[in-house]
Amino acid sequence: MSDRQPITRLDQNARRSRAVIHNNTVYLAGHTADDRSQDIGGQTRQVLAKVDEMLAASGTDKSRALNVTIWLKSMEDFAGMNAVYDAWIVPGQAPARCCGAIELAAPDILVEIMVTAAV
């Protein structure tokens, strides 16, 4: 008999799960925009909407976010991303956060966001 906590994986394929739930914590994979023709504001809105959907599917919401990691194609997009992100955050419930610029998986991806939240 094992007392190990179960692990639930959502929207899984051979390479990744979009969310992994363990021990009352949900770990979201990096999310990117579907319509990559949009500017940083549009892509950030799309990504945060996907984050909201995945958190809901995991039984939680953004008010329970513990940590957010944001990757930008360019730090020149920092202010534009923050304009959308700041409106998304629940007042008084800001998670720990980091943000940096990296080479993303495709040249038209401007932002990728990962979230860890309490369930």
From TrEMBL:
It comes from the Bacteria. InterPro entries: RutC-like_sf, YjgF/YER057c/UK114, YoaB-like. SUPFAM superfamilies: YjgF-like. This is RidA/YER057c/UK114 family protein. It comes from Bordetella genomosp. 5.
